[in-house]
Design goal:
The protein is α+β, with helices and mostly antiparallel strands. The protein has two helices and seven strands; from the N terminus they run E-E-E-E-E-H-E-E-H. Helix content is 23%, strand content 38%.
């Protein structure tokens, strides 16, 4: 498993589509010192995922809600456009992104990382 700088990675590798549904794959770390998107987590078995850390504890959905808020803020989306699809009790999660196209989401991710 390797962690790549988002500037050097293919950001579209963390996005999957199922019909009209766009999913953003995330590898989460709860209980961090600050909320942040750290980069791309590349796992040969599970595939690539956006590596995200949040301060919230992994209890009663606190960390999941914090990740939703962080993703919405970082991508310029409304909170209602980001919803946990799978991985409620797992570090490996998928978030459903609505109201934007896949191309728009890829562009938002690229802008987010190019501005750092």
């Amino acid at each position: 498993m390797r962690l790549y700088s988002p500037r050097l990675s293919r950001l579209d590798s963390v996005i999957t589509t199922r019909g009209d549904v766009i999913l953003l794959r995330v590898r989460a770390t709860a209980g961090s010192s600050r909320d942040r998107i750290e980069g791309i987590h590349d796992d040969p078995v599970r595939g690539s995922a956006l590596r995200v850390a949040v301060r919230a504890a992994p209890e009663r959905g606190k960390a999941n809600r914090a990740i939703e808020a962080l993703l919405a803020r970082a991508l310029g989306l409304r909170r209602s456009q980001v919803a946990l699809e799978s991985g409620v009790a797992s570090r490996d999660k998928a978030f459903r992104i609505s109201g934007v196209s896949r191309a728009d989401l890829e562009e938002r991710l690229a802008r987010r990382f190019n501005s750092e």
